[in-house]
Amino acid sequence: MSARFLWLAIVAVCCAALAGVWPALAAAAAVIQGRVVDDQGRPVAGAVVSAYDSANVRRPADFASPPTGSDGAYRLVVPPGVYWLVAAVRRAGGSAGPLQFGDRHSGDPVRLKVQAAAVKERDFTVLDLRSAARRYAKKNEDLVTVTGQVVDGQGRPVAGAYVLADRRPQIRDFPQYLSGWTGTDGRFVLYLRPDTYRLAASLAWPPPPGTALPVVLDCRSPQSDLRLPLTDPAAPAQAPSAIPGQAIPGQGS
Fold first, then answer.
1. Nearest alpha-carbon partner for 109 in 67, 143, 71, 59
2. Would you place residue 14 in the very low, low, confident or very high pLDDT band (cuts 50, 70, 90)?
């Protein structure tokens, strides 16, 4: 038997095997579909819905839909299983990497279990950080308002930053509170439940676990005109500092 004949025979066997397996695989696939809309219910074009096989969504997706069209519709074909889904619109395109100023996101991942040959419907609403903060404030009328400005080392306003607040000195998974993106004036607004918080300002999104929150602020009453220095999101934990005019709990008045 010649080598060429043997090679053709192997190819024929493989094709025959695939012909029998592929229809079975296709029949077992599940479909996740729906629409991506904004906070006014209008369809969003250019959104990508990503599916992950674990709750860790800080990595490339296991499956991603093509970008939505003008009707906001998406469709994902996946093997049966449990997935965590998010939708995002990235100004730079693509479906992976940290969110940037102006990007929109659906928020916490949605857990969805799909069976073989099933069709699941799931819609998503995408917001930028500023819109998300406003929506959260409307749902929680008892929150304290904290306003101020993010500045760099020379005291100049920083655009495209955001402020995160947490009761813990470091971020373990995700911050408890977020502001929207700052504009060219560096201004931010936070809506917090009355308590004492650790704050930081960052340009990187999302904040990695272990991000230090060096500023301590008593937020039992509204605070305004704070000047918050931009914090390196990868900086190690450091001794807390107080916003001017605010005391660090346990360190005097």
1. 59
2. low
